[in-house]
Amino acid sequence: MNRKKLQKLTDTLTKSCKHFNKFEVKCLITLFYNLVGDVPEKPGVVTGLDRNVFRNILHVTFGMTDDMIMDRVFRGFDRDNDGCISVSEWVHGLSLFLRGTLDEKMKYCFEVFDLNGDGFISKEEMFHMLKNSLLKQPSEEDPDEGIKDLVEITLKKMDHDHDGKLSFVDYETAVREETLLLEAFGPCLPDPKRQMEFEAQVFKDPNEFNET
Fold first, then answer.
1. What is the spatial distance between Cα 44 and Cα 100, in angstroms, rounded to a whole number?
2. Where is the EF-hand domain positioned along the sequence (predicted)?
3. What confidence tens digit (pLDDT) does each residue in 45-89 have?
4. What is the C-alpha separation between 120 and 185, in angstroms, rounded?
5. Which residue blocks in the chain are alpha helix, DSSP H?
6. CA 97 to CA 107: how far, in whole Å?
7. What stretch of H or E contains 143?
8. Please, are residues 178 and 133 in contact by the beta-carbon 8 Å criterion?
9. Tell me, what DSSP letter sits at residue 81?
10. Going by fewer Cβ within 10 Å, which terminus of the chain is more open, N or C?
């Protein structure tokens, strides 16, 4: 990308991006095009990060291991559902992912956990996510029973209107009372250490970033 185009894109995204300054936006755009590679731009064809490249970044850079959650995070970034993350989606997604307010993070996490997009986190969805995110422990007991018990305990704590599922209001109320519940069903945000490492590296020199 030539300097003039980069400058124009930086200016545009800086205006619409809440949590990054102009220099940081420019670094993230540079990193994006380094990750995408030298793909010639074609009219009507979106240049972007596909699911596999993005999942690799989540895994290697941010330490995520849960396939189901990583897939949902990809969907959270890919706002237009076209199967790849554009430069705009990349910058705006990272703005929330790295520096979002509690309100923004609650909305994002709820969308990640609402697997079928019906506006609720059901018992079945909780069961699938907790089963995926918990380490498999060798034991005599049926592990599914333990997870079902955990779902019931979670519902008792978070289901404020007692309808057997979590609405956003239930989730928000519970998280405001206890912020540790933000990622109750699996890690979908970076831990502070990895966040700081990523920012320190990318905002120093995005060309030196190494995702492997």
1. 31
2. 65-100, 101-136, 146-181
3. 668 999 999 999 999 999 999 999 999 999 999 999 999 999 999
4. 13
5. 3-16, 22-36, 51-60, 67-77, 87-99, 102-113, 123-133, 143-158, 168-177, 192-202
6. 12
7. helix 143-158
8. no
9. -
10. C
- pLDDT band at residue 165 using 50, 70 and 90 as cut-offs: very high
d(CA 7, CA 22): 10
The answer to whether the CB of 129 falls within 8 A of the CB of 69 is yes
Cβ–Cβ < 8 Å for 33, 1 = yes
Using CB atoms within 10 A of its CB, is residue 98 exposed (0-12), middle (13-18) or buried (19+)? Answer: buried
Q: Which of 81, 178, 181 has its CA nearest to residue 121? A: 181
Neighbour count for residue 189 (Cβ, 10 Å)? 19
In degrees rounded to 5, what are phi and psi of residue 49?
A: -90, 125
Over residues 94-137, the pLDDT tens digits come to 999 999 999 999 999 999 999 999 999 999 999 999 988 776 55
pLDDT digits (tens, 9 = 90+) for 4-41: 999 999 999 999 999 999 999 999 999 999 999 866 66
Q: Which residues, including other chains, have CB under 8 Å from residue 5's CB and lie 6 or more apart? A: none
- The position carrying tokens 């609720």 is 120
* Total-model pTM: 0.88
User: Which domains does the chain show, CATH number per domain?
Assistant: 3-100+191-203 (1.10.238.10), 105-181 (1.10.238.10)
